[in-house]
Amino acid sequence: MTTTQEPREGLDDLPYNVFAKACPSRGTLEHVTGRWGGLTLGALYEGSLRFNELRRRVDGVSEKMLSQTLHALERDGLVHREAQPTNPPRVDYELTPLGRGIAERLLSLIHFVEGRMDDVLAARRRYDETRGAR
Amino acid sequence: MTTTQEPREGLDDLPYNVFAKACPSRGTLEHVTGRWGGLTLGALYEGSLRFNELRRRVDGVSEKMLSQTLHALERDGLVHREAQPTNPPRVDYELTPLGRGIAERLLSLIHFVEGRMDDVLAARRRYDETRGAR
């Protein structure tokens, strides 16, 4: 399958389309934007981390969920798992070049959202007041 | 809200931080990157749509899930709901300027992922083969 990446107008030429239910790109998009996948990619963008370091950085994730998240990202080729031959074994996780490309775009979205939260919270207050009144 | 997180070049000036469990930005990020929220924002980026048009565009979404998704996006101030005084009433959904800013960044991520799916699928095959062997 060949990729012909083009401006937005020509996107229907792409062989993959997240708007189609059966397209595998939808699953990958979910891995990278899921609750823990996105935060994991964002955390690893700053540099490689060990499992427990990652767990502290991604506040609120359980050991099981982080493990599942890392497996999905590793399988998609976005995260590289490096086991050091030490005793006890030391395992580092880092982004692959592909994972970095995705994390960059995700962080651009994250920072935009963080920077607009005052507006979002003001909109929520207005919405809740209006709904209370009608 | 004050953030006491480690260096992230300049970003620590921001009062909101998705890496903190209790930060409201995490909820908004989930609304815009959730399975249906992201696709809904992406679909509306092309122009305003009626409910049923949206439902056809976001392949696989149920009426109930689309309705919940639109409410969350409207409450966050990302989607505007315009009820026309016709009979039967006609309701259009469109992005607010804030929603457009978010959708742009989300679409950049979506198109990047769609454009790299050959690599992702090749990585999955390698991963599954290696795991089968060990």
UniProtKB/TrEMBL annotation, chains A, B:
Task: Check the record and name the Pfam families matching this protein.
Answer: HxlR (PF01638)
Xref: InterPro entries: HTH_HxlR, WH-like_DNA-bd_sf, WH_DNA-bd_sf
Indicate what this protein is called per its UniProt record.
Answer: HxlR family transcriptional regulator
This protein's UniProt keywords: DNA-binding, Transcription, Transcription regulation
Could you tell me which residue ranges the HTH hxlR-type domain spans? 23-121
